[in-house]
Design a protein that fits this description.
Blueprint: E1 2-5, H1 9-20, E2 25-29, H2 32-41, E3 44-48, E4 51-55, E5 58-61, E6 68-73, H3 77-87, E7 91-99, H4 106-113, E8 118-124, E9 127-132, E10 135-140, E11 144-147, H5 158-163, E12 168-170, H6 174-194, H7 206-222, H8 226-229, H9 232-242, H10 249-255, H11 266-275, H12 281-296
Parallel strand pairs: 1-2, 1-6, 2-5, 3-10, 6-7, 7-8, 11-12
Antiparallel strand pairs: 3-4, 8-11, 9-10
The protein binds NADP nicotinamide-adenine-dinucleotide phosphate.
NADP nicotinamide-adenine-dinucleotide phosphate is lined by residues 5-11, 28-30, 34, 62, 74-77, 79, 83, 100-102, 124, 126-128, 130, 261.
Length: 302
């Protein structure tokens, strides 16, 4: 049985694919009001290539008492540890938690909140968004890497992912993957917010991109992820080109007045740089400007 916390974009994408492959799934919703809305909707809807399919997946609230053996945590990074703390007493001995959060920092917070569980980190290039409550559009096919920095042994339940057609690989260096993705995010997303532009328009700011990339390379190297630093600047330019017409996730969050995951992205990078006493002026200035921008829009800095 998979317990899936968060019936948002990724939670729905995973729950519906697992359920239709015959894997038992139970959704965990935040409270009885949310459960009531879910029951009114009668299940989750996944929209793929314009086709909507409805899945009446079982759901309960986090306050339920059923023990949890396998937890897919599909909430935002800032909600991850508080959500797991609420569920800690339900986790069976030897339970696994699969963490879908973007960025870094929330994984350690979750591990502290549930020391009895095995935490498996994920980094995904899949894309989905909520069209309405409990209705999610599968917007971009991609790949998910999973790994556990403490234990190289892949879990047996990867077979469920294969059965569900969820493209994935077991990674022996998941931290490097997460660091690389974080570095790409730090070089691109904050600038799209500050310049209020699509990813492609950052091509008009080559010096800023080059300075940030070179500081991020230094940071990755000092944090022991030299491999993740290789060719970073070229990769930043490649991503900007490949996603030229898109608005970054941080840009979308800010435009829609939603809390961002800044503390687990640029904030995490700056904290790591300070720990290593690295003088990275462009990165720190970017962080300060982004915090001021969020503050001016009434959005939290954490
Ligand atoms: P999302 O659509 O906002 O969904 C998050 C869900 O978590 C919401 O349904 C929310 O419930 C639920 N939640 C939060 N706290 C909870 C709690 N205590 N108990 C029960 N449910 C709780 O977020 P998302 O886009 O799926 O993103 C999840 C993570 O994946 C983020 O770190 C994101 O950066 C990462 N990611 C997303 C994508 C993507 O394409 N969406 C791609 C790659 C990575 P309510 O509905 O009640 O608010």
């Amino acid at each position: 049985m998979w317990h899936i916390l968060g019936a948002g974009s990724l939670g729905t994408l995973w729950a519906t694919r697992l359920a239709r492959a015959g894997v038992p799934v139970q959704l965990l919703l935040r409270d009885s009001a949310r459960l009531h809305s879910y029951q009114q909707a009668g299940g989750l809807t996944l929209i793929e290539q314009g086709q909507a399919q409805h899945y009446p997946i079982a759901a309960q609230t986090v306050a339920d008492t059923q023990p949890i053996q396998r937890l897919l945590l599909a909430c935002k990074a800032y909600d991850a540890a508080p959500a797991v703390a609420q569920l800690a007493h339900r986790l069976a001995p030897g339970a696994d938690i699969l963490l879908l959060q973007n960025g870094l920092g929330s994984q350690d917070e979750v591990a502290r909140a549930a020391p009895q569980a095995r935490c498996i980190f994920a980094s995904s290039t899949e894309g989905a968004f909520r069209q309405a409550d409990f209705q999610v559009v599968f917007a971009g096919h991609g790949h998910t890497w999973l790994g556990d920095p403490q234990n190289m042994q892949p879990p047996a339940w990867l077979a469920d992912l294969r059965q569900a057609g969820i493209a994935h690989d077991w990674s022996l260096d998941i931290l490097s993957r997460l660091w690389r993705k974080l570095a790409l995010n730090c070089a691109i997303n904050p600038l799209t917010v500050l310049h209020d532009c699509r990813n492609g328009e950052l091509r008009e700011h080559p010096t800023q991109l080059a300075c940030l990339s070179s500081e991020l390379v230094e940071l990755l190297q000092h944090c022991g992820h030299s491999h993740a630093a290789e060719g970073l600047h070229d990769d930043v330019l490649r991503v900007i080109q490949a996603t030229a017409l898109n608005y970054s996730s941080m840009h979308q969050d800010v435009r829609q007045g939603r809390r961002t995951e800044i503390a687990y992205l640029l904030g995490y990078a700056c904290q790591a740089a300070q720990r290593h006493r690295l003088p990275l002026p462009h990165l720190y200035a970017l962080h300060t400007q982004l915090l001021a921008h969020l503050d001016s829009r009434g959005l939290p800095s954490h």
